[in-house]
Amino acid sequence: MRINYETIVKDTDPKLRNKSKPVDLPLSPKHLALAKKMLRYVKDSRDEDKAEKYNLRPAVGLAAPQVGEFVHIIMVMVDTEDQEPMIYLLANPKIVSHSVQQAALKGGEGCLSVEIVHEGFVKRAARITVRAYDILAQQEVLIKEHGYAAIVIQHEIDHLNGILFYDHINTQDPWALSENMLVIE
Ligand code: CO
């Protein structure tokens, strides 16, 4: 069955706060099928016709808990200056190092699982190094990212720990800048 916006687990469901488990490698057929389903959702959600036909809300990323599978698989697809978007389909991603400098998206963040707008800076590391198993390349990889891609990867990894973007917003002063923080347009 296809993932669609209806089947995405929302934050009104306490299950989304579960901590997920790493997957065995190489991936089992079940986990491989899950990863491919997640890839298809994100890809198709960016195609206007398919998004309408299958009730998909546009996404730049998805984590397995959002489709009710509490395992360490994430998908990230972000536009680059090249024609082709950058795709990460990762198992067991782990942030092995990150910058002290923080970064946040100028307009805050959103999430397929969150239907209410939560305004404010979501402060994350500006640069990260992630160790993961690249499902498409079928090998262990070390990924260094900064900017928007780094933000999205951290958002998706948070889902594996039951953390949602608005957990990071300063409720006292949502748009407070931190010293030396990068604001990403
Ligand atoms: Co999300």
Tell me what you see in this structure:
It is built from 3 helices and 8 strands; from the N terminus they run ααβββββββαβ. With 185 residues, it is α+β, with helices and mostly antiparallel strands. It has one domain (5-184): Peptide deformylase (Peptide Deformylase). A 5-stranded antiparallel β-sheet has the order 1-2-3-6-7. β6 and β7 form a beta hairpin. The model has no long low-confidence stretch (mean pLDDT 95). The protein binds cobalt (II) ion. Cobalt (II) ion is lined by residues 111-113, 155, 159.
What is the number of strand segments?
A: 8
Using only C-alpha atoms, the radius of gyration works out to 16 Å
Strand percentage: 25-35%
What does the main sheet amount to? 5 strands, antiparallel
Number of helices: 3
Spatial arrangement of strands, main beta sheet: 1-2-3-6-7
Query: How many domains in all?
Result: 1
Helix/strand structural class: alpha+beta
Going by CATH, the homologous superfamily would be: Peptide deformylase
CATH topology: Peptide Deformylase
Q: Ends: how far apart?
A: 36 Å
Bound molecules: cobalt (II) ion
As a percent range, the share of helical residues equals 10-25%
Oligomer: single chain
Shape: globular
Global mean pLDDT: 95
Runs in which pLDDT lies below 50 for 5 or more consecutive residues are none
CATH architecture: Alpha-Beta Complex
N-to-C SSE string, H for helix and E for strand = HHEEEEEEEHE
Write down the CATH class.
Answer: Alpha Beta
